[in-house]
Specification:
Helix content is about 30%, strand content about 20%. The longest helix has 18 residues.
């Protein structure tokens, strides 16, 4: 039986990892995994909304270097902004500051989106659904998003400090390169690295060289062995 990469149910479709619309305009081979309808996001605006939120933040930032690859992504994304206008909004970061951020609607679960990405990459590498991998219970943290409509500047600084401390802690140790290099995703658009830490795998997903997400997942010994043993995957 062909099983869904995330839940193990009967698979009747495919999921692209990351979403294929992220790579419009590029000649790449997209990573795909078997999926059930519940864990295939191709029919929803979730992927579009998350990607457009990143692109909009890049457009408005003076700190992010817009490489040629990122410029291509911006140009291809502009055509679909209207489709996600109810899910992606520009909000005031502080009521008394002239600073705005791009916010996703509360209905979009960014953490679950990252967990699905990690689960799919594990499935793609091992060719095996392992019910003992604890994706739902895994921990996601990042440095990029902040609570909407903060009242005090100190609240923002406290949250930013905590996120940066978590990032610094996560950077200790040696990272291993992605096993999808042969698929030729432009690194300015997306790449990941990983580390095995005892009974866990820690993913570092990086989008547009700016948006960094960490995902710490408890995995089975079988999955751990398959990840360590297989050096490459060109499927």
């Amino acid at each position: 039986m062909k099983r869904c990469y995330y839940c193990g149910k009967m698979a009747n479709s495919k999921e692209h990892l990351p979403p294929k619309q992220m790579f419009k305009g590029f000649n790449v081979i997209n990573v795909t995994v078997k999926s059930c309808n519940e864990h295939n996001s191709s029919k929803s605006f979730e992927d579009d909304s998350i990607i457009k939120s990143m692109i909009m933040a890049i457009e408005k930032s003076i700190d992010i270097v817009k490489t040629p690859e990122i410029e291509i992504s911006i140009n291809n994304a502009n055509k679909k902004y209207n489709q996600v206008k109810n899910k992606v909004t520009e909000e005031k970061l502080f009521y008394d500051k002239d600073n705005n951020i791009i916010c996703l609607d509360y209905s979009i679960d960014l953490n679950k989106w990252i967990k699905k990405l990690s689960a799919g990459m594990v499935y793609y590498k091992t060719k095996y659904f392992d019910e003992y991998n604890k994706y739902d219970d895994s921990k996601v943290f990042e440095r990029n998003s902040f609570t909407k409509n903060k009242k005090y500047y100190s609240d923002y600084l406290d949250e930013r400090r905590i996120k940066l401390d978590l990032e610094r802690l996560s950077e200790y140790g040696e990272w291993k390169d992605s096993w999808i290099l042969k698929n030729n995703y432009p690194e300015n658009i997306y790449f990941f690295k990983y580390r095995i830490i005892k009974s866990h795998i820690l993913f570092k997903h990086v989008f547009y060289k700016s948006f960094v997400f960490y995902n710490l997942i408890e995995i089975s010994e079988v999955t751990k062995e398959k990840i360590i043993e297989r050096k490459s995957n060109s499927a």
